[in-house]
């Protein structure tokens, strides 16, 4: 994904996030994040043909 393909890019493109803080520095957001315990974010690289198979399976089962 790049900025031009993000549907909400236009809404936020001129905002300055230089003074943005990490979630763990904002107690309310840190609490919300902690409530999502039991889940771990991961990143992995998958061959395009394998990803296409998974997407096909999702579409055929009515998933999003």
Decide which structural class fits the backbone.
mainly alpha
By DSSP, the count of extended strands is 0
Count of runs of 4 or more consecutive helical residues? 3
The low-confidence runs, each spanning 5 or more residues with pLDDT under 50, are: none
Q: Bin the strand percentage.
A: under 5%
Which geometry do the CA atoms define? extended
State the end-to-end CA separation: 18 Å
Any idea what the radius of gyration is?
Answer: 17 Å
| Order of SSEs | HHH
Q: How much helicity do the residues have?
A: 25-40%
State the major sheet: none
Number of domains: 1
Written overview of the protein:
The chain has helices at residues 9-12, 27-34, 48-60. The protein is mainly α. The protein has one domain (8-60). The model has no long low-confidence stretch (mean pLDDT 86). Residues 7-20 have a biased composition (Basic and acidic residues). Residues 1-20 are annotated as: Disordered. This is CopG family transcriptional regulator.
For the structure shown, list the relevant keywords:
64 residues; CopG family transcriptional regulator; single chain; extended; mainly alpha
Short description:
This is CopG family transcriptional regulator. The protein is mainly α and 64 residues long.
Task: Write the topology of this structure.
Layout (H helix, E strand, L loop, with lengths): L8 H4 L14 H8 L13 H13 L4
Organism: uncultured Thiotrichaceae bacterium
Protein name: CopG family transcriptional regulator
